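## retry 2 of 3
previous attempt timed out at serialization; input unchanged, resubmitting
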Amino acid sequence: MIRLEHIAIWVADMEKMCDFYCAYFQATASDKYINPKTKFESYFLSFAQGGRLEIMYRPDIESNNSDQERTGLAHFSISTGSTKEVDSLTARLQQDGYKVISGPRTTGDGYYESMILDPENNRLEITV
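## retry succeeded, writing output
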């Protein structure tokens, strides 16, 4: 059986990103891995229904300071299980100062979703 195991993203602020995904998306963080030789650090954030997000830091990796589309990973999606939860979580994130790019709405291909930017401008789709 083939399945997507995890997605990894470089981050500038490990603790802020870890707190964001744990607080809003109920992720559970692993112990922080630190390689003192390379100055590499990472957390694996696990989600209840499967899938993991690895957030990684190394001081020589440049930050993403733009909310513009770019090549590479376009977005990743987290399912809440219901339209009510999409609406509620999107409203909570917006109230807490996070940028909502679109939605909540039903897309042309039938998904109910919103698109937000996480604290480091990664596009995050919240869907049913």
